[in-house]
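quick one, 96 residues, struct below
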Amino acid sequence: MDKSSYGEVSTSHKKCLNGDINVSDSNKRERITIRLTKRYLDLLNMLIEKGVYNSRNEAIRDALRILYEYHGLKVSPEKKHAFNQSKADDASKEPD
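---
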């Protein structure tokens, strides 16, 4: 495998001085393969079955956005986090 397969930033991504990453083709997606334990896969599927996410891809992208934010990286989200949205929905249902 070449070096780009091990997480190096491709030429379409440029790192800014403040640590943000500018993506020139923000809609471009790359396919990756991951291996998960049965437990992780079962939990991921459970989130989909409960309707929290529509697909594994959506759940994993959301998890990555949360991870990036946790580490202080700015990511312009494709949409609001399903996790945060469900919390907001629950809070709006609580009586005053």
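Residues 13 and 23 are 5 Å apart (CA to CA).
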